[in-house]
Structures are given as C-alpha cells and as structure tokens.
Amino acid sequence: MDELKVFTGNAHPALARAVAKYLKIPAGKCEVLTFANENIFVRILENVRQRDTFVIQPLCSPVNNNLVELLILIDALKRASAGRITAVVPYYGYGRTDKKDQPRVPITARLVADLLTVAGANRLLTVDLHAAQIQGFFNIPVDELTALYLLSRYFKEKGLDDLVVVASDIGATKRARDLAANLNAPLAIVEKRRVGNVDKAETMNVIGEVEGKVALTVDDEIDTAGSLISVVSALEKRGVKEIYACCTHPIFSGSAIQKIASSPIKEVVVTDTVPVAGKKKLDKITVLPIAPLLGEAIHRIHTGLSIGAMFEQG
Length: 314
What we know:
The chain is an alpha/beta fold. The protein has nine helices and 14 strands. The strands form three sheets. It has a seven-stranded mixed sheet, with helices on both faces. The protein has a five-stranded parallel sheet with strand order 1-4-5-6-7, sandwiched between helices. The protein has a two-stranded antiparallel sheet with strand order 2-3. It is globular, with a radius of gyration of 20 Å.
C-alpha cells in the first residue's frame, strides 16, 4: 500500500478535489454514471492493485443514490484488488435512525454499516456522527473526527462577550459542553419533545441562565431548521441579546434556508461536509472548509500516525 488514491462519486466532488489538493496528489480517475434505467455504473480508470484507497462520499441528498454509488464504488475497488478501502463518509446519512424507539421500526444506521462492510470497506472515516454508539455498529475500524475545534476557533476569533453555549436538545449536551469548555463559556440546555415521526419538535424549557447574554446554539446538523427556530423562539422569550448558531452538517432540507433568513439569528456557522451552494448561500451562513481536517486524517491513516493526536493539539 505504498501509494495513496482518493476517489469520489457524485455526492460532493468539490470536497474530494479539495482533499486531494491538501494531500498534494491528483484525484483518482473513475467513471460514475446512471443509465437510462436508473442503474448506476462505476468504472475505475487507473490501476489500484494493492493501493491504499479512500472513497469520499457524504450520504447527502439524494441520499439513496449517493449510498448506492458509494457501495458500488467500494465493490469496484475491491474487485480491482485495492490493498485497503476506506469509506470516507463526512455525513453519515440515516444516522438518526440509530435505535428502536418505537415498536416495529428499523435500525437503519446499523443496516448502512452492514452494507458498507459487506461491500468491502475495510474502515470508515466520518465526522460528528449523530450518536456515538453508531461506531459500535461496525466490525471494522471507525475513525470519527469532530468539527468542534474548527467551530470553537471561529467563535474565539469573533470574541463575543457574555457568551452562553446552548445545546439544542438533551442529545446535543456533550457536544455543547465541549464547545462551551473550549470557549470558556457557561452552558444552557433546551429541553424539547419531538412530536411523532414528522420533522416537528415542541420546545419545552430552557435550563440555565441566558437572559442578557449572547447565545450560541450547537447541534450536529440543521435539517429542516424547525427545531432551530423553536430553540431561537424559546431563547428570545428568555431575553437573550443576540443569537448565533453552529452545526457540522448543513443539510438545509425543504424551507430551511427561508426559515433561517427570516429568523433573528445573526449568523449560522457550518462546515462543508455536504455541498452548500447556490440558493443555500445566505449572507448570514458562514461555511468553514472541512477538507484540511479530512486530508490530515487520511494522511495519518495512510502513514500509520495517531488520529487522536490531531485533537490533543487542539
């Protein structure tokens, strides 16, 4: 495995190019297309025999197409005798279906793990999983990176006064606590209750002192922005001065952009684990590049260096 190769499907080619540029290597050549009958076809256009290969493909919209592309890419590399195949999935789709919280429902996050493994992936590299236990769904090594240090560095440089970090729900508490520690800020938590299986949440209570402060909400992803707007409404009622928001994965489904645009949020800071382009760009949305983080992790995996040391250095 003396040579490093980085391939990508159609999910986020710009990210793959940025990672290849960071690594100072050309992007791997492959053909990924869809026939008229909707069958996906992949052909690797260079020798990968015994090479160390990485496939960069977030499971963003269209999620199912991108998942199948990833599986077929992995299979193509396996059949081309690649030495090791690492699935680089910056955004792990289906991550929110990680447990049986109702009768007769699937655990799709586990199913996706099984599919990746059966396809031939030897390891997974991902960023900020929705739930840490998803790592345990795999029987192959999993490296989970975090964008926490990128986000905290950005807000440190902004130098906001009277800052309080707000966990968007109980599940985001650890992420928010870590961010608050990095920013030397107090922590507040919004307790909310989700209503049914639709993307709708009922905000219940704000735990912590937020009145007269600058609030920074944190979550792993912003999807429809319904939860975010509920949190913003609850914080406004508690008398915060200003509201900022941050997350790793800017999914921005449906009318999310319009909701953010018309909200009192001053700025939403995200990374580009999924594409953020065209209509998704607003003056109040700031996108931090994730490619250097992924590129450094890929370099360390390839050379056998510690991934954890990246974060020990802060």
